[in-house]
Amino acid sequence: MTEKSNLEHKFAQFGDELQVQDGHVIEGYASLFDAKDQGGDIVQKGAYAASLQRLIASGRAVKMLWQHDPAQPIGVWDEVREDQHGLWVKGRLLTEIEKGREAAALVGAGAIDGLSIGYRTLRASKDEKGCRLLQELELWEVSLVTFPMLPSARVSAKGETLAVDVLRELAAAFEGARQEMKRP
């Protein structure tokens, strides 16, 4: 089994308020803690800490990719950190390259509204409801994507503060709607 085969992805939606500053700067949350995604996974606080420390110590950075394609880097994440809400990122789309210009135009027009993390699970457990609790992750990349898995995580180029309770309510509403759609 190759290392690449262990790579997993988590998605988060930008939200309607996303704007591209100066034609290329984006920032916000790529992952939220304690929010169940559509795959039944819950990222726990501190899951990224060791990985981020290892990246810094080795002089490497989290990559910004287009749709998880390692052949299509589209920018750089200048800041990636955990806070009380989740994994916050701030970066620049490289508009000097064609795909970076395309990404900036698509985000600015609202055609692309998702972020997705590429990672490898290092430590996880199950809760009483069968959800996978992700306790330690090796973060590889954060991509701009078309279809987000965690629609309650919002990104704002203005760095707006998240109302976590509202986000949890939205996540519960999306989960309820998803369950209703499964009913015969």
Automatic annotation (TrEMBL):
Q: Does the keyword Endoplasmic reticulum apply?
A: no
**NCBIfam families per the UniProt record, alphabetical:** proheadase_HK97
**Name by which UniProt lists this protein:** Phage prohead protease, HK97 family
Q: Molecular function terms in GO for this entry?
A: peptidase activity
Keyword tags = Hydrolase, Protease, Viral release from host cell
Q: Does the keyword Disulfide bond apply?
A: no
Q: Which organism is it from?
A: Shimia thalassica
Ranges for the Prohead serine protease domain? 21-160
Which InterPro entries does the protein's record reference?
A: Peptidase_S78_dom, Prohead_protease
- GO biological process annotations for this chain's record? proteolysis
SUPFAM superfamilies from the UniProt entry: Herpes virus serine proteinase, assemblin (SSF50789)
